[in-house]
Each structure stands twice: as structure tokens, then as C-alpha cells.
């Protein structure tokens, strides 16, 4: 049976949570953390300490720029993929990443672009990110499909 940090008996728990809240968003989290917290506590911790930082990174730090793309903020998200509950990942992509991505794609398509370049950019995002995350709810539907329809 894995060791769990219980609320009532572990004075280290608040310290650990505070340290996790302060960690760099690019930190790789080992799946052992999932063995330390039960599912309910892990979800609450993620919602309080990790999701807001990832949302900030996707909305305020990541600049979708077809000419000079810096993927570091997106890699912060992918570093958490193995331990972030899927519903949080879906919400981050749906409400923080894809709105900016759609705006850039729409603007680009509205300005007489080189369609081969747009296609390469689009396929790069589709293959490099959507398939990397293995999220079937986006592949072939949802926001990715909206981008394809533009």
C-alpha cells in the first residue's frame, strides 16, 4: 500500500503544498506524487496550485506566432500531462490555448497568406501537440476541428 499524506497527522503536508505552489511551472512531476495523495486531495491540490500557473502560462506567456514560435510555455503544460487529471488538461486547452490559436489562424487566413505555409504550421501544431498529448477528445473534433474549418 503506498504511503499517503493524511490531513490530520502530517505536519509536512502544508509545507509540501506550499512548496509545490512555488515551484517552477516547467518542473517535471514524477508520478509518485499520485501515490502520495488520494485522488480527491490530488485534484484539489492541482486545481489550487498547478492549474492557475498553467492557465497563466498558456494565456499570458505563450504567444502564438507562426513566424517565431516559442513553445516553452506549452512544454510546461506537456510536462504535467502524465499527472494532471484529463479534465483539467482539456479545460486548459479549450479555454486558454485554443482561443489564441484560433485568433492567430483566423488573422493569418484573412491576410492573403501562403496557404502551403499555413498548412505546414497547422499540421505542425496538430501532429506536434494534439497527437503528442494523445487526447482523443480533440483529435478529429472539438477545437482542432474548428481550426480546420477556418
Write up this protein.
The chain has helices spanning 12-22, 33-36, 39-61, 72-79, 86-109, 115-133, 142-149. It has one domain (12-149). Helices cover 65% and strands 0% of the residues. It is an all-alpha fold and 150 residues long.
Structural class: mainly alpha
Helix and strand succession? HHHHHHH
Morphology: elongated
| Ends apart, CA distance between termini | 51 Å
Tell me about the biggest sheet? Answer: none
β-strand amount: under 5%
What does the average pLDDT come to?
77
| Helical amount | 55-70%
Low-confidence stretches: 136-141
Q: Quick one: how many beta strands? A: 0
Radius of gyration over C-alpha positions, nearest whole angstrom: 18 Å
Number of domains: 1
Question: Number of helix segments?
Answer: 7
How would you concisely characterize the structure shown here?
With 150 residues, the chain is mainly alpha-helical. The chain has helices at residues 12-22, 33-36, 39-61, 72-79, 86-109, 115-133, 142-149.
List the helices and strands and how they pair.
Blueprint lengths: L11 H11 L10 H4 L2 H23 L10 H8 L6 H24 L5 H19 L8 H8 L1
Quick tags:
150 residues; mainly alpha; 7 helices; 65% helix
